[in-house]
Amino acid sequence: MARLTALNPEEATGKTKDLFNAVQAKLGVIPNMMRTMGNSPSLLEGYLNFSGALGQGKLSSKTGGLIAMAVSEKNACNYCLAAHTFIGENLAKTDPELLHAARSGNSSDPKTAAILQFATTLTNKRGSINDEDVNLAKNAGVSEAELAETIGHVALNILTNYFNNAVNTEIDFPAVQPLELQN
């Protein structure tokens, strides 16, 4: 059971209503995570702005989605796994096998694999990476701008993972089973 209320967009007021209207216009729906974040319009606005800024960066939205899969798997966020799988398959038209591989930090593309491994290492080490971790990515052709943005994507996904896990957001996408439960 959810620990915070997912606000009804019809009853929202003020800044929250404005943010909900913007999400509705962009996505056609207001997912439960955003409806729940709406309890704090500052949090919802910060999330939307950070996500939007990263969407304008060097890394493609596809790569951002793959990073989200890797980080969400590491943080056991069932909400984000479901949301990013649905978005990846249905909106971004990403091959389901690519999405599945990303959950383990893998990709058949060497540069994408290096980015996902860096993101996974960053998550596992809680940000306390070393020179070797950075050099592995750089040696695979990942630029410093891409490394910086990867850190940003990891941070954004940790925010949403922690939020959804803490408040037990009701999953409003087709459920995805964590890898550890699939064996």
From TrEMBL:
It comes from the Bacteria. InterPro entries: AhpD-like, AhpD_core, CMD-like. Residues 41-103 form the Carboxymuconolactone decarboxylase-like domain. PANTHER family: CMD DOMAIN-CONTAINING PROTEIN (PTHR35446:SF3), SI:CH211-175M2.5 (PTHR35446). This is Carboxymuconolactone decarboxylase family protein. The lineage of its organism: Bacteria, Pseudomonadati, Bacteroidota, Flavobacteriia, Flavobacteriales.
